[in-house]
Amino acid sequence: GFQLLKQVVSQSFHTIVISANINRAIEAFEYGVLDFIPKPYNIERLQAAFQRLKSSHALDGHSIKYLSVKKGFEIKIIPLEEIKYFKSDNNYVELHLQNNQVVIYDKSIKQLIPLLPSNYYRIHKSFIVDRNNVESIQSLGGGKYRAILKSGDCLPVSRHKIHLLKNIGI
Length: 170
What we know:
This protein is of the alpha+beta class. Helices cover 19% and strands 38% of the residues. The protein contains five helices and twelve strands. Strands 7-6-5-9-8 form a five-stranded antiparallel sheet, with no helix packed on it. A three-stranded antiparallel sheet has the order 10-11-12, with no helix packed on it. The longest helix is centred in the first third of the chain and has 9 residues, at 43-51. The radius of gyration is 17 Å and the shape is globular. The protein starts with a helix and ends with a helix.
């Protein structure tokens, strides 16, 4: 089952696991599942799992540690700490890695957000960053802002998101 999960998590849909084997729940979350429902389950628990689709972040302790990316017949596992930032490009997301490579993740930015830990913020309609990787925020005047990452990358910050970043102390 987990071999199949490793393969399908790279597809452009979310996975909810229903299993009696609760010892594997954390491992399932590490593979990027949206939720793990232990058996026996009830309708309220199923509804809560589907509500997560609308959530802005994964529940604490239930977020992914790496992303599974399918390229041809190969599946590559990419730890979150190797990702500098995420950039949306229509129906997929570019993963900009610490080694300056760009890898394509075939889920949309909207599908990715519920999987990420709470320290990841959507700073612009096209960008998500780990707040711990942000060095500073610069005002460019005229309502334009940019985030300077510790890697030296400069990313745009939406006027609608600047107050959020200031409120969290960036």
